[in-house]
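User:
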Amino acid sequence: MHVEAEVLAAFPAEVQIPARLVAEGLDASSGTSPRVFVVLDDDPTGTQSVADLPVLTRWEVADFAWAFAHEINGRRQRAVYVLTNTRSLDPAGAAARNGAVVRNALAAAASADPALRLSFVSRSDSTLRGHYPLEPDVIAATVTEVNGETSDGVVIVPAFPDAGRVTIGGVHYMRGTGDDAGHLTPVAETEFARDASFGFANSEMAKYVEEKSKGRFPADSVIVLDLNIIRAAGPDGDPAVSAKAIADALDAATDSTPIVADIVTENDLRALALGLEEAERRGKKLLYRVGPPFVRARIGQEIRAELSGEEAFARTTPSEAGGLIIVGSHVGVTTRQLKALTEQHSAARIVEIDVEKLLAAETETGGADGYLDETVDAVVQALHGGDVIVHTSRLLIKAGDAAESLRIARTVSAAVVAVVNRTLNTFPPRFVIAKGGITSSDVAAHGLEIRHAIVRGPMLPGIVSLWEPVDGPAEGIPYVVFAGNVGDDQSLVQVTRKLSNTF
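Assistant: Predicted structure:
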Protein backbone atom coordinates (compact mmCIF):
# COMPACT_ATOMS: atom_id res chain seq x y z
CA MET A 1 0.00 0.00 0.00
CA HIS A 2 1.26 3.48 -0.91
CA VAL A 3 0.46 6.97 0.36
CA GLU A 4 -1.11 8.89 -2.53
CA ALA A 5 0.36 12.25 -1.59
CA GLU A 6 3.86 10.77 -1.55
CA VAL A 7 3.41 9.07 -4.93
CA LEU A 8 2.10 12.30 -6.48
CA ALA A 9 4.88 14.42 -5.00
CA ALA A 10 7.19 13.41 -7.83
CA PHE A 11 4.92 14.96 -10.47
CA PRO A 12 3.65 18.44 -11.41
CA ALA A 13 0.30 19.81 -10.24
CA GLU A 14 -2.68 19.35 -12.53
CA VAL A 15 -3.50 21.78 -15.33
CA GLN A 16 -6.89 23.52 -14.91
CA ILE A 17 -8.93 22.89 -18.08
CA PRO A 18 -12.62 23.74 -18.54
CA ALA A 19 -14.75 21.17 -20.35
CA ARG A 20 -15.89 23.78 -22.89
CA LEU A 21 -12.28 24.12 -24.13
CA VAL A 22 -12.31 20.45 -25.12
CA ALA A 23 -15.76 20.70 -26.69
CA GLU A 24 -14.80 23.78 -28.69
CA GLY A 25 -11.62 22.09 -29.91
CA LEU A 26 -13.58 19.02 -30.98
CA ASP A 27 -16.11 21.15 -32.87
CA ALA A 28 -13.35 23.13 -34.56
CA SER A 29 -11.55 19.97 -35.67
CA SER A 30 -14.76 18.40 -36.94
CA GLY A 31 -15.63 21.37 -39.16
CA THR A 32 -17.96 20.22 -41.93
CA SER A 33 -17.24 16.54 -41.13
CA PRO A 34 -19.29 15.70 -38.02
CA ARG A 35 -17.71 13.14 -35.72
CA VAL A 36 -19.29 10.58 -33.42
CA PHE A 37 -17.55 8.36 -30.87
CA VAL A 38 -19.10 4.88 -30.99
CA VAL A 39 -18.57 3.34 -27.56
CA LEU A 40 -18.63 -0.47 -27.46
CA ASP A 41 -19.45 -0.96 -23.79
CA ASP A 42 -18.64 -4.46 -22.54
CA ASP A 43 -21.21 -3.97 -19.79
CA PRO A 44 -23.66 -1.09 -19.33
CA THR A 45 -21.92 0.52 -16.38
CA GLY A 46 -19.75 2.61 -18.69
CA THR A 47 -22.61 5.08 -19.03
CA GLN A 48 -22.34 6.11 -15.38
CA SER A 49 -20.03 9.04 -16.09
CA VAL A 50 -22.01 10.66 -18.93
CA ALA A 51 -25.39 12.32 -19.42
CA ASP A 52 -27.92 12.85 -22.21
CA LEU A 53 -26.43 10.38 -24.68
CA PRO A 54 -28.21 7.63 -26.65
CA VAL A 55 -27.72 4.00 -25.65
CA LEU A 56 -28.37 0.94 -27.82
CA THR A 57 -28.80 -2.65 -26.67
CA ARG A 58 -29.10 -3.81 -30.30
CA TRP A 59 -26.77 -2.86 -33.12
CA GLU A 60 -28.55 -3.35 -36.41
CA VAL A 61 -27.95 -0.65 -39.01
CA ALA A 62 -31.38 0.81 -38.21
CA ASP A 63 -30.46 1.14 -34.53
CA PHE A 64 -27.38 3.17 -35.38
CA ALA A 65 -29.43 5.26 -37.78
CA TRP A 66 -31.74 6.15 -34.88
CA ALA A 67 -28.82 7.03 -32.61
CA PHE A 68 -26.99 9.14 -35.19
CA ALA A 69 -30.18 11.12 -35.97
CA HIS A 70 -31.54 11.44 -32.42
CA GLU A 71 -31.47 14.94 -31.01
CA ILE A 72 -31.26 15.80 -27.31
CA ASN A 73 -31.74 19.41 -26.29
CA GLY A 74 -31.89 20.37 -29.96
CA ARG A 75 -28.63 18.82 -31.13
CA ARG A 76 -27.19 15.53 -32.22
CA GLN A 77 -24.79 13.97 -29.79
CA ARG A 78 -21.03 13.46 -30.02
CA ALA A 79 -21.18 9.87 -28.73
CA VAL A 80 -23.43 6.83 -28.75
CA TYR A 81 -23.12 3.85 -26.41
CA VAL A 82 -23.63 0.29 -27.64
CA LEU A 83 -24.24 -2.29 -24.96
CA THR A 84 -22.26 -5.30 -26.21
CA ASN A 85 -22.08 -7.16 -22.86
CA THR A 86 -19.02 -8.97 -24.16
CA ARG A 87 -17.54 -9.38 -20.70
CA SER A 88 -20.09 -12.19 -20.28
CA LEU A 89 -19.01 -13.94 -23.51
CA ASP A 90 -16.17 -16.25 -24.39
CA PRO A 91 -13.42 -14.86 -26.64
CA ALA A 92 -14.97 -16.13 -29.89
CA GLY A 93 -18.35 -14.64 -29.02
CA ALA A 94 -16.79 -11.35 -27.97
CA ALA A 95 -14.81 -11.13 -31.22
CA ALA A 96 -17.85 -11.82 -33.38
CA ARG A 97 -19.96 -9.23 -31.56
CA ASN A 98 -17.32 -6.50 -31.76
CA GLY A 99 -16.93 -7.09 -35.47
CA ALA A 100 -20.67 -6.94 -36.10
CA VAL A 101 -21.05 -3.69 -34.16
CA VAL A 102 -18.25 -1.96 -36.06
CA ARG A 103 -19.47 -3.11 -39.48
CA ASN A 104 -23.05 -1.99 -38.83
CA ALA A 105 -21.98 1.35 -37.37
CA LEU A 106 -19.84 2.10 -40.41
CA ALA A 107 -22.67 1.06 -42.76
CA ALA A 108 -25.18 3.28 -40.94
CA ALA A 109 -22.81 6.25 -40.98
CA ALA A 110 -22.17 5.88 -44.71
CA SER A 111 -25.93 5.86 -45.36
CA ALA A 112 -26.77 8.70 -42.97
CA ASP A 113 -24.06 11.16 -44.00
CA PRO A 114 -21.01 10.37 -46.16
CA ALA A 115 -19.11 13.09 -44.26
CA LEU A 116 -19.82 11.53 -40.85
CA ARG A 117 -16.63 10.27 -39.19
CA LEU A 118 -16.67 7.55 -36.54
CA SER A 119 -14.12 6.98 -33.80
CA PHE A 120 -14.31 3.71 -31.89
CA VAL A 121 -14.00 3.34 -28.14
CA SER A 122 -13.70 -0.05 -26.44
CA ARG A 123 -15.05 0.69 -22.96
CA SER A 124 -14.12 -1.84 -20.31
CA ASP A 125 -13.42 -2.25 -16.63
CA SER A 126 -11.54 0.24 -14.46
CA THR A 127 -10.10 -2.73 -12.57
CA LEU A 128 -8.64 -4.20 -15.79
CA ARG A 129 -11.00 -7.13 -16.32
CA GLY A 130 -12.21 -7.90 -19.83
CA HIS A 131 -11.19 -9.17 -23.27
CA TYR A 132 -7.94 -7.30 -23.82
CA PRO A 133 -6.22 -7.09 -26.31
CA LEU A 134 -8.85 -9.07 -28.22
CA GLU A 135 -11.47 -6.32 -28.47
CA PRO A 136 -9.32 -3.44 -29.76
CA ASP A 137 -7.63 -5.94 -32.08
CA VAL A 138 -10.98 -6.92 -33.61
CA ILE A 139 -12.16 -3.31 -33.89
CA ALA A 140 -8.94 -2.32 -35.66
CA ALA A 141 -9.07 -5.30 -38.02
CA THR A 142 -12.72 -4.70 -38.87
CA VAL A 143 -12.18 -1.01 -39.64
CA THR A 144 -9.31 -2.00 -41.94
CA GLU A 145 -11.45 -4.65 -43.60
CA VAL A 146 -14.31 -2.20 -44.27
CA ASN A 147 -12.52 0.97 -45.33
CA GLY A 148 -8.80 0.20 -45.43
CA GLU A 149 -7.92 2.52 -42.54
CA THR A 150 -5.26 1.24 -40.16
CA SER A 151 -4.82 2.11 -36.50
CA ASP A 152 -1.61 3.77 -35.34
CA GLY A 153 -2.25 3.39 -31.63
CA VAL A 154 -4.57 2.00 -28.96
CA VAL A 155 -4.90 4.46 -26.08
CA ILE A 156 -5.42 2.59 -22.79
CA VAL A 157 -7.00 4.67 -20.01
CA PRO A 158 -8.59 2.51 -17.29
CA ALA A 159 -8.60 5.30 -14.69
CA PHE A 160 -11.90 6.17 -13.00
CA PRO A 161 -11.12 8.84 -10.38
CA ASP A 162 -14.80 9.16 -9.33
CA ALA A 163 -14.64 5.53 -8.17
CA GLY A 164 -11.09 5.65 -6.80
CA ARG A 165 -9.15 4.13 -9.71
CA VAL A 166 -6.09 6.18 -10.73
CA THR A 167 -2.93 5.64 -12.76
CA ILE A 168 0.31 7.26 -11.59
CA GLY A 169 3.80 6.64 -12.94
CA GLY A 170 2.35 4.01 -15.25
CA VAL A 171 0.96 1.99 -12.31
CA HIS A 172 -2.79 1.47 -11.87
CA TYR A 173 -4.09 1.81 -8.31
CA MET A 174 -7.23 1.61 -6.21
CA ARG A 175 -7.77 4.34 -3.63
CA GLY A 176 -8.55 3.23 -0.12
CA THR A 177 -11.68 4.21 1.76
CA GLY A 178 -12.49 4.54 5.45
CA ASP A 179 -9.41 3.81 7.54
CA ASP A 180 -7.37 3.39 4.33
CA ALA A 181 -8.31 6.79 2.87
CA GLY A 182 -5.28 8.50 1.36
CA HIS A 183 -3.63 5.19 0.51
CA LEU A 184 -3.24 3.44 -2.83
CA THR A 185 -3.25 -0.30 -3.49
CA PRO A 186 -1.83 -1.61 -6.79
CA VAL A 187 -4.80 -3.12 -8.59
CA ALA A 188 -3.09 -6.51 -9.03
CA GLU A 189 -3.19 -6.83 -5.23
CA THR A 190 -7.00 -6.50 -5.08
CA GLU A 191 -9.78 -9.08 -5.38
CA PHE A 192 -10.42 -7.99 -8.98
CA ALA A 193 -7.06 -9.37 -10.14
CA ARG A 194 -8.20 -12.82 -8.97
CA ASP A 195 -11.23 -12.79 -11.29
CA ALA A 196 -11.92 -16.33 -12.50
CA SER A 197 -12.26 -15.27 -16.14
CA PHE A 198 -10.02 -12.21 -16.44
CA GLY A 199 -7.39 -12.42 -13.71
CA PHE A 200 -4.01 -10.74 -14.06
CA ALA A 201 -0.68 -10.34 -12.25
CA ASN A 202 0.63 -6.88 -13.13
CA SER A 203 -0.38 -3.39 -11.94
CA GLU A 204 2.24 -1.61 -14.03
CA MET A 205 0.30 -0.95 -17.21
CA ALA A 206 3.13 -1.63 -19.66
CA LYS A 207 3.71 -5.02 -18.03
CA TYR A 208 -0.05 -5.66 -17.96
CA VAL A 209 -0.09 -5.08 -21.74
CA GLU A 210 2.81 -7.52 -22.20
CA GLU A 211 1.11 -10.07 -19.94
CA LYS A 212 -2.26 -9.90 -21.66
CA SER A 213 -0.82 -9.80 -25.18
CA LYS A 214 1.35 -12.82 -24.34
CA GLY A 215 4.46 -10.89 -25.33
CA ARG A 216 3.19 -9.55 -28.65
CA PHE A 217 3.59 -6.07 -27.19
CA PRO A 218 6.69 -6.09 -24.95
CA ALA A 219 6.54 -3.70 -22.02
CA ASP A 220 9.32 -1.54 -23.46
CA SER A 221 7.33 -1.01 -26.68
CA VAL A 222 4.43 0.65 -24.83
CA ILE A 223 4.24 4.45 -24.95
CA VAL A 224 3.65 5.75 -21.42
CA LEU A 225 2.12 9.22 -21.04
CA ASP A 226 3.02 9.87 -17.42
CA LEU A 227 1.95 12.92 -15.43
CA ASN A 228 5.06 14.80 -16.50
CA ILE A 229 3.64 14.78 -20.03
CA ILE A 230 -0.07 15.07 -19.14
CA ARG A 231 0.69 18.07 -16.89
CA ALA A 232 3.49 19.60 -18.98
CA ALA A 233 1.86 23.05 -18.94
CA GLY A 234 1.93 23.37 -15.15
CA PRO A 235 -1.03 24.58 -13.06
CA ASP A 236 -1.04 28.13 -14.50
CA GLY A 237 0.21 27.32 -17.98
CA ASP A 238 -1.36 27.08 -21.41
CA PRO A 239 -3.18 23.73 -21.93
CA ALA A 240 -1.88 23.80 -25.49
CA VAL A 241 1.58 23.05 -24.07
CA SER A 242 0.34 19.78 -22.59
CA ALA A 243 -1.57 18.99 -25.78
CA LYS A 244 1.60 19.40 -27.83
CA ALA A 245 3.63 17.27 -25.41
CA ILE A 246 1.07 14.48 -25.65
CA ALA A 247 0.83 14.66 -29.44
CA ASP A 248 4.63 14.72 -29.74
CA ALA A 249 4.84 11.58 -27.59
CA LEU A 250 2.42 9.82 -29.94
CA ASP A 251 4.36 10.65 -33.11
CA ALA A 252 6.11 7.29 -32.88
CA ALA A 253 2.88 5.27 -32.64
CA THR A 254 2.28 2.91 -35.53
CA ASP A 255 0.51 -0.40 -36.16
CA SER A 256 -1.70 -0.29 -33.03
CA THR A 257 1.08 0.67 -30.62
CA PRO A 258 -0.27 0.46 -27.04
CA ILE A 259 -0.35 3.86 -25.32
CA VAL A 260 -1.07 4.11 -21.58
CA ALA A 261 -1.87 7.33 -19.77
CA ASP A 262 -1.54 8.51 -16.19
CA ILE A 263 -4.81 9.96 -14.89
CA VAL A 264 -5.62 11.22 -11.38
CA THR A 265 -8.23 13.94 -11.96
CA GLU A 266 -10.82 15.15 -14.46
CA ASN A 267 -8.37 17.87 -15.51
CA ASP A 268 -5.88 15.14 -16.45
CA LEU A 269 -8.52 13.50 -18.62
CA ARG A 270 -9.28 16.83 -20.31
CA ALA A 271 -5.57 17.48 -20.90
CA LEU A 272 -5.33 14.03 -22.47
CA ALA A 273 -8.39 14.77 -24.63
CA LEU A 274 -6.77 17.92 -26.00
CA GLY A 275 -3.56 16.05 -26.72
CA LEU A 276 -5.34 13.20 -28.48
CA GLU A 277 -7.29 15.66 -30.60
CA GLU A 278 -4.02 17.34 -31.59
CA ALA A 279 -2.46 13.97 -32.44
CA GLU A 280 -5.44 13.05 -34.59
CA ARG A 281 -5.36 16.49 -36.25
CA ARG A 282 -1.77 15.65 -37.23
CA GLY A 283 -3.03 12.45 -38.85
CA LYS A 284 -2.76 9.77 -36.18
CA LYS A 285 -5.49 7.11 -36.28
CA LEU A 286 -6.35 6.06 -32.73
CA LEU A 287 -8.59 3.56 -30.99
CA TYR A 288 -9.41 3.72 -27.31
CA ARG A 289 -9.58 1.12 -24.52
CA VAL A 290 -10.89 2.98 -21.50
CA GLY A 291 -12.73 3.19 -18.20
CA PRO A 292 -16.04 5.06 -17.73
CA PRO A 293 -15.07 8.78 -17.48
CA PHE A 294 -12.86 8.93 -20.57
CA VAL A 295 -15.71 9.62 -23.00
CA ARG A 296 -17.09 12.43 -20.84
CA ALA A 297 -13.75 14.21 -20.97
CA ARG A 298 -13.01 13.32 -24.60
CA ILE A 299 -16.20 15.00 -25.88
CA GLY A 300 -15.93 17.95 -23.51
CA GLN A 301 -18.98 17.17 -21.44
CA GLU A 302 -19.38 18.83 -18.05
CA ILE A 303 -19.63 16.60 -14.99
CA ARG A 304 -23.36 16.16 -14.45
CA ALA A 305 -24.57 16.76 -10.90
CA GLU A 306 -26.24 13.74 -9.35
CA LEU A 307 -29.93 13.38 -10.19
CA SER A 308 -32.61 13.78 -7.56
CA GLY A 309 -35.58 11.48 -7.23
CA GLU A 310 -37.79 14.19 -8.72
CA GLU A 311 -35.51 14.43 -11.78
CA ALA A 312 -35.52 10.66 -12.17
CA PHE A 313 -39.31 10.70 -12.55
CA ALA A 314 -39.51 14.03 -14.40
CA ARG A 315 -40.62 12.51 -17.70
CA THR A 316 -43.07 9.96 -16.33
CA THR A 317 -45.85 9.48 -13.80
CA PRO A 318 -44.50 7.21 -11.03
CA SER A 319 -46.35 3.96 -10.48
CA GLU A 320 -47.79 3.19 -7.06
CA ALA A 321 -46.19 -0.24 -7.26
CA GLY A 322 -43.03 -1.01 -5.36
CA GLY A 323 -39.61 -0.80 -6.94
CA LEU A 324 -37.51 -3.79 -7.98
CA ILE A 325 -33.88 -4.00 -6.82
CA ILE A 326 -31.89 -6.78 -8.51
CA VAL A 327 -28.50 -7.75 -7.06
CA GLY A 328 -26.32 -10.20 -8.97
CA SER A 329 -22.73 -9.08 -8.42
CA HIS A 330 -20.64 -11.03 -5.88
CA VAL A 331 -17.78 -8.60 -5.24
CA GLY A 332 -17.27 -7.62 -1.63
CA VAL A 333 -18.60 -4.07 -1.84
CA THR A 334 -21.87 -5.30 -3.42
CA THR A 335 -22.42 -7.81 -0.65
CA ARG A 336 -21.85 -5.08 1.94
CA GLN A 337 -24.22 -2.74 0.10
CA LEU A 338 -26.87 -5.45 -0.01
CA LYS A 339 -26.46 -6.07 3.71
CA ALA A 340 -26.89 -2.37 4.46
CA LEU A 341 -30.02 -2.15 2.32
CA THR A 342 -31.71 -5.20 3.79
CA GLU A 343 -30.94 -4.01 7.31
CA GLN A 344 -32.23 -0.47 6.77
CA HIS A 345 -35.14 -0.99 4.36
CA SER A 346 -37.37 -2.92 6.72
CA ALA A 347 -40.44 -2.44 4.50
CA ALA A 348 -38.84 -4.26 1.56
CA ARG A 349 -39.53 -7.92 0.80
CA ILE A 350 -36.39 -9.98 0.18
CA VAL A 351 -36.45 -12.79 -2.40
CA GLU A 352 -33.35 -14.93 -2.89
CA ILE A 353 -32.48 -16.84 -6.06
CA ASP A 354 -30.63 -19.83 -4.65
CA VAL A 355 -27.89 -20.53 -7.18
CA GLU A 356 -27.24 -24.09 -5.96
CA LYS A 357 -30.94 -24.96 -6.33
CA LEU A 358 -31.04 -23.25 -9.71
CA LEU A 359 -28.04 -25.16 -11.07
CA ALA A 360 -29.35 -28.41 -9.61
CA ALA A 361 -32.71 -27.91 -11.30
CA GLU A 362 -30.97 -27.20 -14.60
CA THR A 363 -28.91 -30.38 -14.27
CA GLU A 364 -31.69 -32.69 -13.06
CA THR A 365 -34.60 -31.57 -15.22
CA GLY A 366 -33.01 -29.60 -18.03
CA GLY A 367 -34.70 -26.41 -16.85
CA ALA A 368 -35.71 -24.43 -13.80
CA ASP A 369 -39.19 -23.26 -14.79
CA GLY A 370 -40.86 -24.54 -11.65
CA TYR A 371 -38.38 -22.82 -9.37
CA LEU A 372 -38.63 -19.59 -11.35
CA ASP A 373 -42.44 -19.67 -11.33
CA GLU A 374 -42.38 -19.69 -7.53
CA THR A 375 -39.89 -16.83 -7.48
CA VAL A 376 -41.94 -14.66 -9.86
CA ASP A 377 -45.13 -15.26 -7.89
CA ALA A 378 -43.37 -14.10 -4.71
CA VAL A 379 -41.97 -10.98 -6.39
CA VAL A 380 -45.26 -9.92 -7.99
CA GLN A 381 -47.21 -10.40 -4.79
CA ALA A 382 -44.69 -8.38 -2.81
CA LEU A 383 -44.59 -5.50 -5.36
CA HIS A 384 -48.23 -4.76 -4.55
CA GLY A 385 -47.10 -3.74 -1.07
CA GLY A 386 -43.72 -2.13 -1.59
CA ASP A 387 -40.16 -2.58 -2.81
CA VAL A 388 -38.69 -6.00 -3.51
CA ILE A 389 -35.01 -6.92 -3.26
CA VAL A 390 -34.16 -9.91 -5.45
CA HIS A 391 -30.64 -11.19 -4.98
CA THR A 392 -28.68 -14.23 -5.96
CA SER A 393 -27.31 -16.29 -3.08
CA ARG A 394 -24.03 -14.89 -1.83
CA LEU A 395 -22.08 -18.17 -1.97
CA LEU A 396 -20.04 -17.89 -5.15
CA ILE A 397 -20.01 -21.21 -7.01
CA LYS A 398 -16.44 -21.90 -8.08
CA ALA A 399 -15.75 -23.55 -11.43
CA GLY A 400 -12.76 -25.41 -12.76
CA ASP A 401 -11.95 -23.04 -15.60
CA ALA A 402 -12.89 -19.70 -17.16
CA ALA A 403 -15.33 -21.22 -19.67
CA GLU A 404 -17.29 -23.02 -16.95
CA SER A 405 -17.31 -19.85 -14.83
CA LEU A 406 -18.88 -17.96 -17.71
CA ARG A 407 -21.43 -20.77 -18.29
CA ILE A 408 -22.53 -20.61 -14.65
CA ALA A 409 -22.70 -16.82 -14.82
CA ARG A 410 -24.89 -17.00 -17.93
CA THR A 411 -27.21 -19.55 -16.31
CA VAL A 412 -27.70 -17.38 -13.25
CA SER A 413 -28.15 -14.26 -15.36
CA ALA A 414 -30.76 -16.02 -17.51
CA ALA A 415 -32.73 -16.83 -14.37
CA VAL A 416 -32.54 -13.21 -13.19
CA VAL A 417 -33.69 -12.02 -16.62
CA ALA A 418 -36.63 -14.43 -16.59
CA VAL A 419 -37.75 -13.18 -13.19
CA VAL A 420 -37.55 -9.54 -14.27
CA ASN A 421 -39.26 -10.09 -17.61
CA ARG A 422 -42.15 -12.12 -16.22
CA THR A 423 -42.60 -9.58 -13.45
CA LEU A 424 -42.58 -6.67 -15.93
CA ASN A 425 -45.27 -8.29 -18.03
CA THR A 426 -47.40 -9.14 -14.99
CA PHE A 427 -47.12 -6.10 -12.69
CA PRO A 428 -44.66 -3.36 -13.79
CA PRO A 429 -42.57 -1.95 -10.93
CA ARG A 430 -42.14 1.73 -10.05
CA PHE A 431 -38.41 1.58 -10.86
CA VAL A 432 -35.71 -1.03 -11.46
CA ILE A 433 -32.18 -1.01 -10.02
CA ALA A 434 -29.75 -3.65 -11.30
CA LYS A 435 -26.51 -4.23 -9.38
CA GLY A 436 -23.61 -5.77 -11.25
CA GLY A 437 -22.29 -5.40 -14.80
CA ILE A 438 -23.52 -8.60 -16.45
CA THR A 439 -26.69 -8.43 -14.38
CA SER A 440 -27.55 -4.88 -15.43
CA SER A 441 -26.78 -5.61 -19.07
CA ASP A 442 -29.01 -8.66 -19.28
CA VAL A 443 -31.77 -7.00 -17.27
CA ALA A 444 -31.73 -4.04 -19.67
CA ALA A 445 -31.62 -5.88 -22.97
CA HIS A 446 -33.69 -8.96 -22.13
CA GLY A 447 -35.44 -8.51 -18.81
CA LEU A 448 -36.83 -5.06 -19.62
CA GLU A 449 -36.57 -5.45 -23.41
CA ILE A 450 -34.94 -2.03 -23.79
CA ARG A 451 -33.68 -1.46 -27.33
CA HIS A 452 -33.09 2.30 -27.27
CA ALA A 453 -32.57 4.47 -24.19
CA ILE A 454 -31.16 7.81 -23.14
CA VAL A 455 -28.69 7.94 -20.29
CA ARG A 456 -29.86 10.90 -18.21
CA GLY A 457 -27.01 11.13 -15.73
CA PRO A 458 -25.59 9.75 -12.47
CA MET A 459 -27.61 8.93 -9.35
CA LEU A 460 -24.50 9.47 -7.20
CA PRO A 461 -21.58 11.82 -7.96
CA GLY A 462 -19.79 10.41 -11.00
CA ILE A 463 -21.20 6.89 -10.58
CA VAL A 464 -24.42 4.87 -11.00
CA SER A 465 -26.30 5.62 -14.22
CA LEU A 466 -29.99 6.39 -14.78
CA TRP A 467 -31.43 5.29 -18.11
CA GLU A 468 -34.71 6.42 -19.61
CA PRO A 469 -36.07 3.62 -21.84
CA VAL A 470 -37.67 5.19 -24.91
CA ASP A 471 -39.38 2.12 -26.32
CA GLY A 472 -40.62 -1.34 -25.37
CA PRO A 473 -42.56 -2.50 -22.30
CA ALA A 474 -40.26 -0.65 -19.87
CA GLU A 475 -40.85 2.78 -21.45
CA GLY A 476 -41.36 5.29 -18.65
CA ILE A 477 -39.80 3.12 -15.92
CA PRO A 478 -36.56 4.63 -14.53
CA TYR A 479 -33.77 2.07 -14.85
CA VAL A 480 -30.63 2.34 -12.73
CA VAL A 481 -27.42 0.68 -13.88
CA PHE A 482 -25.23 0.11 -10.82
CA ALA A 483 -21.77 -1.42 -11.28
CA GLY A 484 -20.81 -4.12 -8.82
CA ASN A 485 -17.49 -2.54 -7.85
CA VAL A 486 -18.42 1.11 -7.18
CA GLY A 487 -19.71 3.10 -4.24
CA ASP A 488 -19.34 2.70 -0.50
CA ASP A 489 -21.38 0.50 1.82
CA GLN A 490 -24.31 2.97 1.89
CA SER A 491 -24.53 3.71 -1.85
CA LEU A 492 -27.29 1.22 -2.68
CA VAL A 493 -29.31 2.55 0.25
CA GLN A 494 -28.89 6.13 -1.00
CA VAL A 495 -30.03 5.36 -4.54
CA THR A 496 -33.01 3.31 -3.37
CA ARG A 497 -34.15 6.09 -1.02
CA LYS A 498 -34.27 8.53 -3.95
CA LEU A 499 -36.66 6.36 -5.94
CA SER A 500 -38.73 4.51 -3.36
CA ASN A 501 -42.12 5.62 -2.01
CA THR A 502 -41.91 3.21 0.94
CA PHE A 503 -38.36 3.74 2.22
